[in-house]
Design goal:
The protein is mainly beta. It has two helices and nine strands, in the order H-E-E-H-E-E-E-E-E-E-E. The strands form two sheets. Strands 1, 4, 5, 6, 7, 8 and 9 form a seven-stranded antiparallel beta sheet that branches. A two-stranded antiparallel ribbon has the order 2-3. Strand 5 and strand 6 (109-114) form a beta hairpin.
Length: 180
């Protein structure tokens, strides 16, 4: 079980993938090919920046999509995960979005819906975490899908970090799944 202690702690799956199970210094897991990040067209930043670990200034600065309704950032893990909590780092802050899961990257299940969510403070970089109860369902694809305007009343999806916590799923026995 990958258990949350605090925003962007060292217990999440992306940190573990980025450190080879805490055996090396952190390298963004998209950079190393351990996860695949996709998004709507990007106006500024990099795919790696959307899932950075920690403050965005340490991994490339502002990351945001074009100002288009329905923008998204998606992530494919090398293993299924039953998410119990997730953390976002954002600026020009998200207010309306869905956190979604999928096993094929085509059909999505809403795991947590946010409507005018004020949890992320309206400042340059804010973090917040939410509990997720996907009924124990494990997914290998996850997506932040913007469903309305941000705190600036625009459709830019501005995100600078993501971390996932939960239980490795899909019928794997404990100790048989490598995070490498």
């Amino acid at each position: 079980m990958l258990e949350y202690e605090s925003d962007f702690d060292t217990n999440g799956v992306l940190f573990l993938l980025g450190t080879n199970g805490r055996t090396t210094a952190y390298v963004n897991p998209h950079t190393t090919g351990k996860v695949v990040v996709t998004s709507s067209p990007i106006e500024s930043g990099t795919l790696e920046g959307f899932i950075g670990h920690g403050h965005p200034l340490t991994h490339g600065g502002n990351n945001y999509t074009n100002c288009v309704a329905g923008s998204f950032v998606a992530l494919q893990l090398p293993l299924p995960l039953a998410v119990t909590r997730y953390t976002l780092g954002a600026y020009n802050v998200l207010r309306n979005w869905n956190f979604e899961g999928s096993n094929d990257g085509v059909e999505w299940v809403v795991l947590h819906q946010h409507v005018n969510d004020q949890s992320l403070a309206a400042r340059e970089f804010a973090t917040a975490s939410w509990d997720v109860n996907p009924d124990g369902l494990a997914f290998s694809h996850f997506r932040i899908h913007q469903t309305g305007v941000n705190s600036s009343e625009q459709h830019y999806l501005m995100m600078g970090g993501l971390e996932l916590y939960g239980r490795v799923g899909g019928g794997f026995a404990p100790g048989t799944v490598s995070l490498n």
